[in-house]
Write a structure and sequence with these properties.
Distance between the termini: 25 Å
Largest sheet: 5 strands, antiparallel
Number of helices: 3
CATH architecture: Alpha-Beta Complex
Structural class: alpha+beta
Shape: globular
Strand content: 25-35%
CATH class: Alpha Beta
Number of domains: 1
Bound molecules: nickel (II) ion
Radius of gyration: 15 Å
Strand order of the largest sheet: 1-2-3-6-7
Number of strands: 7
Order of helices and strands: HEEEEEEEHH
Helix content: 25-40%
Length: about 170
């Protein structure tokens, strides 16, 4: 078991664009497993490889109450999206900050699982939010970038203060 270090906004490495996974091998399976453990320990409901400084298209999500529905998406693509919902979001890379973001209510995703097999998933509500939030990380986008510039500056100042205290 290995807990991974989670990068904190506004670390420049969070803005990197992840590369596709070329082969689902043991290295990728270990990364996915460590990411799941890191997510559960945080605790959080989703984690993208970008957040642990691994710039590959890999995300893990579990929105269940009892940590029983782990989903691993490798090279995820959104096939369809529709509807609209506003959800109060947070992020393990932006600790203590929550704000409303508007996203699609439904997404249909195609990805590879940890065996390297393709699957499709229809997501609604919180799961759909999570998929969109985590996939944003893979293109270097953090949810606070949907907020006003003023809010983003305030968040940066607040996090800088926190890291001085915990350093
Ligand atoms: Ni996040």
């Amino acid at each position: 078991m290995a807990l991974l270090n989670i990068l904190r906004y506004p670390d420049a490495r969070l803005f990197k664009v992840a590369a596709p996974v070329l082969k689902v091998d043991d290295r990728i399976r270990k990364l996915a497993k460590d990411m799941a453990e890191t997510m559960y320990a945080a605790p959080g409901v989703g984690l993208a490889a970008t957040q642990v400084d691994q710039h590959l298209r890999l995300i893990v999500i579990d929105v269940s109450d009892d940590k029983s529905e782990l989903l691993t998406f490798i090279n995820p693509e959104i096939l369809e999206k529709d509807g609209e919902q506003v959800c109060e979001e947070g992020c393990l890379s932006v600790p203590g900050i929550y704000d409303k973001v508007t996203r699609a209510e439904h997404v249909k995703v195609r990805a590879l699982d940890i065996k390297g097999e393709s699957f499709e998933l229809e997501a609604h509500g919180l799961l759909a939010v999570c998929v969109q939030h985590e996939m944003d990380h893979l293109v270097g986008k953090v949810f606070v970038q949907y907020l006003s510039r003023l809010k983003q500056e305030r968040i940066k100042a607040k996090l800088a203060k926190q890291s001085r205290i915990t350093a």
